[in-house]
Amino acid sequence: MKSRATWACACALLLSMNGALAGSRPLNVVFIDIGTVDVYAEKFFQSYVDGDLKSPEKSRHCWTELLEDGIRSDVFGMISGKKRPAGLDVRLARKIWQGDEPAAERARRILRQNFEYAPGKFVREGGYDGMYILDSDGRSLGIMSIGAHKGASERLKIAIDDAHPDQGAADFSYALCKVGAPLMNGFGV
Questions:
Q1: Per-residue model confidence as pLDDT tens for the chain (189 residues)
Q2: How far, in Å, CA of 189 to CA of 182, rounded?
Q3: Looking at the domain assignment, is residue 109 inside a domain?
Q4: What's the domain range around 99?
Q5: Number of Cβ within a 10 Å radius of residue 60
Q6: Which of 34, 61, 106, 143 has the most CB atoms lying inside 10 A of its own CB?
Q7: How far apart are CA 122 and CA 130, in angstroms?
Q8: Is residue 40 part of a domain?
Q9: What's the structural domain count of the chain?
Q10: Residue 8 falls within a domain, yes or no?
Q11: d(CA 176, CA 178)
């Protein structure tokens, strides 16, 4: 009898979670680092990946407004950094950073394709929602995004302080949101 009650509670929990997430899904994005310093090795990035955000409320508020139907606990579903779709490389990202619109269109075509990297890790039909281009020099981080369907953000620059990686992670999350509007073009399509 106890196992039947446990099973019923588990089913109810799963159904309530499904209802809470109905109509929303995480973003699938690509990060491309064009900077002189490996952003993936920086302390703030590791804190961001680990979820160590000093002041996430500013970031959470931004994402809630951007996603309109509310933030999911996991804003990003699949993030491809070092392993990314063929054709999306540093050279192409640098051209986009410099404002080359034909390069941005080439990247959008690649982003909209379907990709499968590992067993059980399939990006939804329609490919990625967009990509972020990161330009770090160790003291500051430039960041911009392009959407898979249309649009590109302005470039935003934030300070990096290795002494406070948790604050850097929070600032990075906020910056991702602030330049994230182009990712919403066609979101949910």
A1: 433 332 222 222 222 222 223 345 677 888 899 999 999 889 988 888 887 666 667 777 787 777 665 444 455 555 555 677 888 999 999 999 999 999 999 999 998 885 544 445 544 555 788 899 999 998 999 999 999 888 899 999 999 888 888 888 888 988 998 998 898 866 544
A2: 14
A3: yes
A4: 25-184
A5: 16
A6: 143
A7: 16
A8: yes
A9: 1
A10: no
A11: 6
